[in-house]
Design brief:
Blueprint: H1 5-15, E1 19-28, E2 33-35, E3 50-53, E4 59-68, E5 72-92, E6 98-119, E7 125-149, E8 152-158, E9 168-182, E10 185-196, E11 208-210, E12 213-222
Antiparallel strand pairs: 1-4, 1-12, 2-11, 3-5, 4-5, 5-6, 6-7, 7-8, 7-9, 9-10, 10-12
């Protein structure tokens, strides 16, 4: 009675594809923000008008992949980056009363790419290409503002700064890399490009804008 079950078990095992998990880390090859930086104002004020990007140059996250037949795979990543920029603005009301506004904006950007991957049949080093769609959202967005009018200073914070265009956006992804087998782990260096549909940040004056073209180097380690 057990023998007829053997072909069924063999067929089930043939279609049962492994699910791998791991981590990814890397660095951006393009700036997260495009900023217009002004020169230092010489004199008593010593102010730097303009915007200045302080985004951290790293990407960290987790990855999972479902291996499919025909050298295909379906990959889902969760990638984290920290973005930060500051701005300074000077205004004169015409009565020699100068208003100085200094702002500092920070946010956690979470990116979730869903990719279809194809592996080429090459011994040892297996090159691959992938393509798909990514969702990106901002969490913990905070802008601290300090405004000084003459000698009076006021401070405030907001989670919806004027520079914000959208907290969430999407984009199309393409990439290429190598898969290297080392004992029980897979090491996968990859270069990836994303074209975002809309920017997260877009200053009305055009002084700061998050870039829609994103390139990055990623190193994945899966088990």
């Amino acid at each position: 009675m057990r023998l007829p079950l053997l072909p069924l078990l063999a067929a089930a095992s043939a279609f049962a594809q492994p699910l791998t998990f791991g981590v990814k880390a890397g660095m951006p090859l393009t700036d997260f923000l495009s900023t217009v930086e002004s020169q230092r104002v010489e004199g008593v004020l010593g102010i730097f008008p303009g915007f200045f990007s302080n985004t951290r140059p790293y990407v960290l996250g987790a990855t999972a992949e479902l291996r499919l037949p025909a050298s295909l795979g379906l990959e889902l990543d969760a990638l984290y980056r920290r973005t930060n920029y500051s701005g300074t603005d000077l205004a004169n009301n015409g009565l020699n009363v100068i208003t100085t506004t200094i702002s500092s904006t920070s946010a956690n950007a979470w990116e979730f790419p869903l990719l279809l991957k194809y592996r080429f049949h090459v011994p040892v080093l297996r090159p691959y290409a992938d393509a798909g769609y990514a969702w990106d959202t901002l969490a913990g967005l905070t802008q601290a503002i300090r405004q000084t009018v003459a000698t009076i200073t006021n401070s405030s914070t907001t989670s919806t700064p004027a520079d914000l265009n959208k907290k969430g956006t999407g984009g199309f992804v393409v990439g290429a890399g190598l898969e290297i087998h080392a004992l029980f782990i897979h090491v996968s260096p990859e270069v990836r490009y994303t074209r975002w549909i809309s920017p997260h940040f877009q200053d009305p004056a055009g002084l700061v804008e998050s870039k829609q073209n994103q390139a990055e180097f990623l190193l994945g380690i899966t088990f």
